Amino acid sequence: MSGKIVNYYDDSTECIGFLSVPESSNLVPLILVAHTWKGRSEFEDQKAIALNDLGYAALSIDIFGEGVNGQTVEENQALIEPFVSNRQLFRKRLISAVEYGKTIKGVDSSKIALIGFCFGGLAAIELARSGYEVAGCVSFHGLLNQSSEPFQKVKSKLLVLHGDKDPMVSTEEILALQDEMTESEANWQFISYGNTYHAFTNPAANDIEMGTVYNSESDRRSWIAMSNFLEEVFLQC
C-alpha cells in the first residue's frame, strides 16, 4: 500500500488529491472519495486508506480546487455555494476526477465508483444524475438538494445512506430524490438509520445543536452496506 499527493486538472483548475493503492499484481477497482463541505482533509484520506483493506485503490478528490479548506461554517457554506447553484460546474469537476482516475497505473478503468460524505454525498448523487456512467455511487449522510439541471438517464447504481434525524435533509427532499430516481428507472437503494444525525461517520462530530453527531453503530453499518454494494456492482461490470 502506498499513499501520495497527486495533481490533476479540470481545464485550468488544479485539483490536489490523495491516492492510495494496495499492492497487487492485478488491476484493481478504484473508489473516488468526495469530501465534506470543508474540502479534502485527513478524514477523506483515511477513508481512502481504509478502502485499500477492501482491495481497492482509492483517490480522495478535490472538488473546490487548489486544495482549499474552509475554517468556519461561513467559509464552508461559501465554498459549496458555486457547486450547489451551478450543477454543470459541479458535474464537470466530478467527471474530470473520474477521467483522471481512469489513467492511474494499476487501476481497472472499467471498475470505478464514487463515494462521498455530506457535501460529497451530494456529489455522488449529482454524478449519478449527470448520466455519466460509473459502476456505483454511494452517499453517506449526503445533502439531497434538488438539481437545477434536468437529470439524465441514470446509468450508475446508487446507494444513499441517511440518518433519520438529519436536520439538513427534509422529508420532501427524500421523497423528491426517490421519485426522481424511480422516474429515471435507476437502480437505487435508500437506507435510513434510526436515531442518527448528520455526519454520523465522523468521530469528531459532536454538535447536537447543529445536528452533527457521530454514531458508531450507524458508522459501522453504513460501511458494511457500502462494502456489500461495491462488491455487488463490481461483480456485474
Could you explain the architecture of this structure?
- The chain has 237 residues and is α/β, with parallel strands linked by helices.
- It has a single domain, classed as Alpha/Beta hydrolase fold, catalytic domain (Rossmann fold, 3-Layer(aba) Sandwich).
- It has 6 helices and 10 strands.
- The chain has helices at 42-52, 73-85, 87-101, 119-130, 171-183, 216-235; strands spanning 2-10, 13-21, 28-34, 57-60, 107-117, 136-140, 157-163, 188-193, 206-207, 212-213.
- Strands 1-2-4-3-5-6-7-8 form an 8-stranded mixed sheet, with helices on both faces. A two-stranded antiparallel sheet has the order 9-10.
- Strand 1 and strand 2 form a beta hairpin.
- The two termini are 24 Å apart.
- The relative contact order is 0.13.
- The mean pLDDT is 96.
Q: CATH homologous superfamily, by name?
A: Alpha/Beta hydrolase fold, catalytic domain
Largest sheet: 8 strands, mixed
Query: How far apart are the first and last residues' alpha carbons, in Å?
Result: 24 Å
Structural class: alpha/beta
Q: What is the alpha-carbon Rg in Å?
A: 16 Å
Describe the secondary structure blueprint for this structure.
Layout (H helix, E strand, L loop, with lengths): L1 E9 L2 E9 L6 E7 L7 H11 L4 E4 L12 H13 L1 H15 L5 E11 L1 H12 L5 E5 L16 E7 L7 H13 L4 E6 L12 E2 L4 E2 L2 H20 L2
Parallel strand pairs: 3-4, 3-5, 5-6, 6-7, 7-8
Antiparallel strand pairs: 1-2, 2-4, 9-10
Keywords:
6 helices; Rossmann fold; two-stranded antiparallel ribbon; eight-stranded mixed sheet; alpha/beta; 237 residues; single chain
What is the gist of this entry?
By secondary structure, this protein is of the alpha/beta class. The protein has a single domain (2-235), classed as 3-Layer(aba) Sandwich (Rossmann fold). The chain has helices spanning 42-52, 73-85, 87-101, 119-130, 171-183, 216-235, and strands at residues 2-10, 13-21, 28-34, 57-60, 107-117, 136-140, 157-163, 188-193, 206-207, 212-213.
